[in-house]
Amino acid sequence: MIYREKTDVLKNEIINSLKVFTGRKCVLWDVPYYSNIGDTLIWEGELNFLKNCGCKCLEMASKETCCFPSLSKDTIIFLQGGGNFGDLWREHQEFRLEVIRRYPKHRIVMFPQSVYYESAEQMRRDAEEMAMHPNLILCARDNVSYALLKKEFKNQVLLVPDMAFCISLDYLEKLRSKEKDRILFVKRTDKELADITFKRENADVRDWPSMENRIWCLYLLEKGVGFSQKLKKCGWKNFAGRINKILNLYGKYIVRPCLTKIGVKFVSSYKYVYTTRLHVMILSVLLGKSCEFFDNSYGKNSAFYETWLKDLAEIKKANG
């Protein structure tokens, strides 16, 4: 299967799986106000999906800027997809649980996530709390996560590809950089890095540029969020809420396209890509590049590859 066919197949799979759960209006919460461009690509795809489905997004907010407003009963709550369902990145899971507690009568849809728990007891507690919500739909983005959710959680569970596949390919083409005859190795620098061996001496070893250097639009957003949080702690909730609305607009219209552009230009400028990051692999597919991947600490990359990408000859697991 060629790249364009694959991206079309996965995009249609997303639409066919999730369109039935959309409505005329929604909110999208837990969007990424941080430096991981992979999560920004998910956000970009989610917005395209909602737009194509005719679902008007009334608000986008991060876990820090969400003020939990009153919502009409026909407003769907969408939660950002990614790889933070479980106990490794606990703050995002706690935010999801808070949303579930506050909106027991609304439909809540979690966009596709990879799932990982170190603690079986924590997983049991999360499953019990989520089971209390009658209209919570959980989406897994690989077969391993799907099997775990189906076994341990009582909510409706769907298997859905990563939302980045809903990004417009024409939009990505406009952002593409001129390709250099260089090899890229994207080595993540966080707690998901596994013990790997990389032997290509002539490769540029990098992480996302936003994690290596200060991106001013993101820096200003982070400072604004910090200021808003301080106001909230001091009891100035109304003022903090007004600032959060401005920050959410700034994140949507300035930070999101900026980080997307940086990520696309970064990956597209290399002839061949090795990666420990899932969304560098996914972006390679979207850009039509050959890529070899290493697993993260808990097998997320292999699980996604085996579920959706193993029929692409240009994408394969690295030998180390």
The H/E string reads HEHEEEHEHEHEHEEHHHEHEHE
What is the CA-based Rg, rounded?
Answer: 19 Å
Instruction: Name the beta content range.
Output: 15-25%
Shape: globular
Gap between N and C termini:
25 Å
Number of helices: 11
Main beta-sheet annotation: 7 strands, parallel
* Structural class category: alpha/beta
Architecture overview:
The structure is a single chain. With 320 residues, the chain is of the alpha/beta class. The protein has 11 helices and 12 strands. It has helices at 3-18, 37-52, 90-102, 120-131, 143-152, 169-175, 209-212, 216-233, 237-268, 278-287, 300-309; strands spanning 25-29, 56-61, 75-79, 82-86, 108-116, 136-140, 156-159, 180-186, 204-206, 270-275, 291-293, 315-317. The strands form 2 sheets. Strands 1, 2, 3, 4, 5, 6 and 7 form a 7-stranded parallel β-sheet that branches. Strands 9-8-10-11-12 form a 5-stranded parallel β-sheet, covered by helices on one side. β11, α11 and β12 form a beta-alpha-beta unit. α2 (37-52) packs across α9 (237-268) and α8 (216-233) packs antiparallel against α9 (237-268). The model has no long low-confidence stretch (mean pLDDT 95).
